[in-house]
Write a structure and sequence with these properties.
The protein has 11 helices and 13 strands. With about 300 residues, it is an alpha/beta fold. α2 links the parallel β4 and β5. The relative contact order is 0.13. InterPro entries: DUF1731, Epimerase_deHydtase, NAD(P)-bd_dom_sf, SDR39U1.
Length: about 300
């Protein structure tokens, strides 16, 4: 099987690439640096501009699976209007480039996996959110709606399309986990804002496992929440981190301080989604990590 990953040099893309290479599959990664990119051993780098099918589009004829993970990091800095435009362009234009190549291909891939995020639902408060829940009305929600729509045309070409609304990915070296760990390691950990906001998390092992499960099951298509069955509130998550790291949990960071420090980007930590993976559970996917403490201990406690 031949697999093409757009955005394959990132955290999730690299994990998926290694997984499929270990299974003996051929993995091609679309990268602005092409063959010069730092990629998992055995993966083939293919240069692209993330804007069009120019120079690489013919490769689509050979692919069995296409995985689209492109998108500039939302947590890389304050959300200026210029940065927000890059968030949009990096997601929507790359999706359109994949569709352009697919449209030109004589032989279409069997399945397209399209990345999205639980931010699709906006700030959900206490509401339990499954795949049938409507989109929110803020910037992130609108971005996710357009991100998902960027590759919708594949369905009309007869390509099975899977959309992943991903939660916070817990993995060794993950930027988001490192940011959550830092205050506790400095002995100043505590709740962010009210601490009541929900955190829809997922262990990287289940990201990889669920994607493989969905790709391999020809009867599954459409939207799937890629998060663990048991989301937790920020305060609960923080107390668990403190206990595992043997650090105090005492210094709250008020919402107004986070808003002053981060601006609109503070939504990433002050708002949340009580998202559940209803369709994955119904499909029978066997989660390796359903409970957040077990997931954190797997990543943080070295035997």
């Amino acid at each position: 099987m031949k697999i093409l990953i757009a955005g394959g040099s990132g955290l999730i893309g690299s994990a998926l690439a290694r997984h499929y290479l270990e299974k003996g599959q051929e993995v091609y990664i679309l990268s602005r640096r092409g063959s010069a990119a730092v990629l998992p051993a055995g993966a083939k780098g293919v240069e692209w501009d993330a804007q069009s099918a120019k120079g690489w589009g013919d490769l689509m004829n050979e692919m069995d699976v296409v995985i689209n993970l492109t998108g500039e990091n939302l947590g890389a800095g304050r959300w200026t209007e210029q940065r927000k435009q890059r968030f949009y362009t990096s997601r929507i234009q790359s999706g359109k480039a994949l569709i352009e190549a697919m449209r030109q291909a004589v032989r279409k891939p069997g399945v397209l996996v399209q990345s999205s995020a639980v931010g699709y639902y906006g700030d959900g408060g206490e509401q339990v959110l499954d795949e049938s829940s409507p989109p929110g009305k803020d910037f992130l929600a609108g971005l996710c709606v357009d991100w998902e729509d960027s590759t919708r045309e594949a369905e009309f070409m007869g390509v099975r399309r899977i959309v992943l609304r991903t939660g916070v990915v817990l993995a060794e070296g993950a930027e988001v986990l490192n940011r959550l760990l830092l205050p506790f390691r400095l002995f100043v950990g505590g709740p962010l804002g009210s601490g009541k906001q929900w955190l829809p998390w997922i262990h990287m092992a289940d990201v990889v496992g669920a994607v493989d499960f969905l790709v391999e099951n020809p009867n599954l298509a459409g939207v799937f929440n890629l998060s663990a069955p048991q989301p937790v509130q920020n305060a609960t998550f923080g107390k668990t981190l403190a206990r595992i790291l043997r650090r105090p949990y005492w210094l709250p960071v008020p919402a107004f301080a986070l808003k002053l420090l981060l601006g609109e980007m503070s939504k990433l930590v002050l708002e949340g989604q009580r998202a559940i993976p209803k369709r994955l559970i119904e499909a029978g996917y066997p989660f390796r990590f359903s409970e957040h403490e077990a997931a954190l201990r797997d990543l943080l406690v070295k035997v």
